[in-house]
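Homework help board

Subject: predicted structure for assignment chain

Our instructor gave us this sequence and asked us to write out the predicted structure in token form, then describe one feature. I got the tokens but I'm not sure how to describe them. Can anyone check?
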Amino acid sequence: MIGIMGYWGRMALGLFVVVGCTSEATHQQPPQDGGLDDASVEGGADAGADTSTDGPATDATSDATGDAADGGECSVSCPQRPNATVDCVNGTCVITSCDVGWDDCNDVLLDGCEVFVAGDTSNCGVCAKVCAGNNGTVACTSGTCLVSTCTSGYADCNSTGDDGCETSLQVPATCGSCNDACASGQLCDASGPTPVCALDCGSQTLCGATCANTQTDAQHCGGCGNACTGPNASHACDSGQCAIASCASGFLSCDGSASTGCETNVLTSSAHCGACGQSCSGTCVGGACNPVVSLSMGPYNACALRHDGQVLCWGLNDEGGIGDGTRLSRAAPTPVPGVTAKSVGVAENVVAACAVDTTGKLWCWGRNQGGAVGDGTLLSPRVSPTAVTSNDPQFATRVFEVVDGFAEGFCALDDQGDVWCWGYSQLGTAGSGVVGEIIPRATRVSGVAGAIALSAAPLHVCALIQGGTVRCWGRGTNGELGDGQSQTSVSPVTVSGLSGIQKIAAGESASCAIDGVGDLYCWGRNSSGAVGDGTTTVRPTPVKSSLTAVQQVGMGRHHVLARTASGAFGWGNNTLGQLLTATPSAQEPTPLAVTGLPAGATDFYGGSGSMCVLHGGAASCWGHDWSGQLGVRDVLVKTLPFPIGGATPLGGLGHIALGGNHSCVALAQEVRCGGLSINGQLVQSVVGDATAVPLAMPLPTSPVRSLTGGTRFSCAVIGADGSREAWCWGLNAAFSLGTTAAGSGPHKVMNLTDPSVVVAGGEFACALVAGVPHCWGANGLGQLGIGATTPSTSLPGPVSGVTDAVAVTAGELHACVLHAGGTVSCWGANGNGQLGIGATGTQTAPVLLSTLTGVKQIAAGGRFTCAIVGASDEVRCWGGNDSGQLGNGNTTNQGFPQPAVLGGAVALSGGGQHTCAVLADGTVRCWGDNGSGQLGNGTRTSSLTPVTVTGLSDATTVSTYRVPIPYGHSTCARRQNGTAVCWGMNSYGRLLGGESILVPTSSPVAFP
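My token output:
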């Protein structure tokens, strides 16, 4: 019981440890250290005399007050020990008491009462009683455990220091203090400085008084209080990370950081104009780089005016109508140098144009028949802008605001409200008072003082007068002047019954005016229903339209489009699809709703058989394009709007495939095609349309692995490894689409499992499946490789005897495979030796080329084949050589592979009658026929040996089309940056970017 009862109990009992002295023992002195040595304590035989002199009194002395029951004197002298009283009890030295606050906890006499139990937290009050320091700091005071301080969030709620700060203040029972318990359904929220009772959030996180999912809550994203913020943005929280959900109108996040919000105003930023990363070298206005603000269209050419005053023109240019200093016709917008303008107009008959520059001066260019240029001369064309002159001394003092063209001349409005005209005044159109007069200089028109707007038709002109009336002059035999008469007037007359007019537009078959409340009035010839009143009867006075809230109207020669508050409407002649109806028609005399317009369509501008619309700073056109006047790089009728100048060149191209009068490009998960769609090659386009702006093909969204073009069809392999599929679209002649299904597709090719690549020949195709080529389509010359010339088949079948193919290629009527060991086998037509086996007979099953080994790549041309061979990457060719496509310096057909054409080749493609190779340094060499510039060296001279393509040093692959006539005269190359360039024949815009489709290009141009 020693060390348990404590020092208070010991003092009361007086009984302690026995040290082993007896009545028979001799008296001994304590050791010099004041204690008992082992011998004396144990009472052993080796106990010697204690020579110490510092011990206490002898036992004889102490025994006098000892226990009488001892039965005799103690034989030793009991020493005193620290903090203790030592005495002899029953003949033994023991600690009879400890000093106040001390205790003997180890039951060892030697160190006395060694523990200060009055202040030791490990022996507080009694031995081995520990003052627990749980969640705080404790002290032992006068033998009692007391709490000094508690860790934040804990308290000593039982006022007993023995267990420290035993109570958590972060639990519902004691939330914030010992006596505060949370109500049922509440938790204790310890996220703040002081714990408080709050909701039970279950799997969510309690943030203050709110339950939050920190993985999705934008106010507590990733943790309580982590709010997702940033200017011009609505934020979201995605997996605990802040993200931008949407941006305010006109703003985007271009730095990729959610914390900065949608920091970029893409409506004005020159570095991010309209989209992130879309830089603008000019002014960014409304998200468009230097947007188009107005258009003017003639029957053969057109011009556009940009925000910064730049004038661009396109179309026929035989007499300088484009104004670029040349006579080269352009199907794409071309800048007019030397003029910064605020208005531009095109003549309605002659190929000429005029502009008002920013200082108010007049400039004209183009055909000068009848003095249309206005510089005082006749007949001699002007290929660059020429200043308009006048014999009137007031002309030089006037600041002009707007110019517009009639049939063979122009009229302009100045800042004083006067109208000036020049050119051939066939029916008094120039307002000079004389019919048929030639006016080579600007002349003021009498009777139109106070004009505020101007609009010219081919043979009459109208002016809006301040106050809202309208005056017209020129031909009026079919009511064109709107004065109720049917006669020509060489001086202005007032249009009947109009007041409060705000806008005017003159056309050949009708003219229209819009008043202040949006009511539309039209009058005129009306032979195609251009007045829009449901009839084709001449209307010599204005007729109010059934349309309301009209905002703008655009006049073609015989058709009209109007924009209202509720949408767009069109009426009049529609033989060329001007009204955007699904089926062109001769006339539509009643307004029809127009669909298919680009988003944001605003102002309409009419041409002879076409129409254009402004949208978002850009312009799109449709209708007839016989002179390239639509600026969309092709010359067929357009039944859908296409952007002027085509689209921005695509980047990230993976494959390029040229087919017969069409071409396709592959992006990561999309295929786009352009050119002619007479057989549905473009799928999305109306049959018969052509476009140089590539259209997306309706294929499943999936990685594009391979792309190829046939004569009138195209094919692609799409999908991830293990689930790849082949799809084809276009004309299904001889079942070349690999299906019996009707329509142009796209159709999934039947009976193929995970093909890796597909190649198209003339009217057949082959795909590679796990080393085995499978072919389908036409087979009249054994091009399917199945050992027979059976009829065409829609079901792909394996080529006979080939199981180790690593590549396949197809020409017009033959195909070849590259075996895993570097050898080549070919089959099909062989009339020109294109199979490379020496003989020229057709082979319906693969035949090995025994003279060719070490092959790395193969490429079939129309009626020939080439390969990259050996360590030096030599190009060797064989087969038809009528245009020098074998590159060996002559035009003799070759039945066996010929010596190297050149070395260092990394990619190869065979065309109809030419061949191209990419070298290791990124340059491209071509040889063979060059009648359309397909060799790309800036000439149209054929070459029997390789020539270098001009200006190309970063090519990675090259593509040609394989059918010799009439399609195989174009070439494209993919560049290292993922864009492409093309050269050669550009029929129907198939190069998707050529400057003029009327003339082939012999040097690379951007594609598409």
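Reply (TA_rk): Your tokens look well-formed. For the description, you could write something like this. Helices lie at 6-13, 38-42, 59-63. That's the kind of observation they're looking for.
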